[in-house]
Design brief:
A hairpin with a 5-residue loop joins strand 6 (163-167) and strand 7. This protein has 2 domains: 2-33; 66-250, no CATH class. It is globular and about 45 Å long. The chain has 5 helices and 14 strands. By secondary structure, the protein is α+β, with helices and mostly antiparallel strands. The strands form 4 sheets. Strands 1, 2, 3, 4, 8 and 10 form a 6-stranded antiparallel β-sheet that branches.
Length: 252
């Protein structure tokens, strides 16, 4: 027993404890302080620091062009890719009431329920009423575009990927309007989880329309774009965001 006690005293002496504590304090100081001269430059920052998403491509996609979109191809390994469906340049229509052929009863499930409308009001500052009527200062925008399946298999395309945004000079953007459409024309189901899905047979082309609620102030802004492909989230943020130049279609 005395031998064990002696060994313990030699191993955990006060001097060794003091040295260990000092080393720990030094480590804490090094990890909690900035480098001399201020924060580290971007190239020296930790890889997990997320940067603001920017819109891909030096110039926006214009009339006659298409954007590759992710789609779900049932039965494939790695079901989502970025080259399965092409979305072509859209035609936009701005209206002060529901467009012809669009009924509030056909909106996405739960959109016009009180809880959903309250959520829209809280998030965006506006919402339609229970009958689908517009709030003051907003318009409906109907987006119509051709979707093309490019593979030899059925592809399931999500029409809720699009949204409107204001493009900044540095390529970053500010989202405006509802981030999901309220309605879509090519729905195959009324299920909340499947409402926005469009099933395309191999090499099928189909015209699809969606409906958004957007503030008039944003619709009158020449920086307005339609983000078709929202990109993919990675270690440094969202990459691969692609958008159409559409502001000229909506200017009064």
């Amino acid at each position: 027993m005395n031998a064990l006690k002696s060994h313990f005293q030699r191993t955990f002496s006060p001097r060794m404890f003091a040295l260990g504590f000092a080393a720990l304090a030094a480590c804490v100081a090094l990890t909690s302080c900035e480098a001399p001269g201020g924060p580290l430059p971007p190239e020296n920052r930790e890889p997990f620091e997320v940067s603001a998403p920017v819109i891909d491509n030096a110039s926006l996609y214009g009339e006659g062009e298409s954007i590759p979109m992710p789609a779900n191809v049932p039965g494939r390994t790695g079901q989502f890719t970025n080259e399965e469906v092409n979305l072509f340049y859209p035609q936009l229509r701005r209206t002060a009431q529901l467009p012809e052929g669009v009924a509030a009863a056909d909106f996405a499930p739960t959109v016009l329920e009180e809880a959903s409308r309250s959520s829209l009001q809280e998030r965006f500052g506006f919402a339609p009423d229970a009958d689908g009527n517009l709030p003051t200062g907003c318009s409906y925008v109907q987006v119509t575009a051709k979707v093309q399946n490019t593979v030899d298999a059925e592809a399931v395309f999500d029409t809720a990927q699009g949204s409107f945004a204001l493009l900044n000079e540095d390529g970053t953007y500010t989202s405006v309007g509802t981030d999901d459409p309220l309605w879509q024309s090519a729905r195959d189901s009324t299920s909340p989880k499947q409402y926005f899905q469009v099933h395309l047979v191999p090499h099928e082309e189909r015209e699809v329309s969606t409906l958004y609620l957007v503030p008039d102030e944003a619709l009158d802004d020449p920086r307005l774009v339609f983000i078709a492909n929202p990109g993919l989230s990675g270690g440094e943020g969202i990459a691969g965001v692609k958008a159409f130049a559409i502001a000229s279609q909506l200017q009064k």
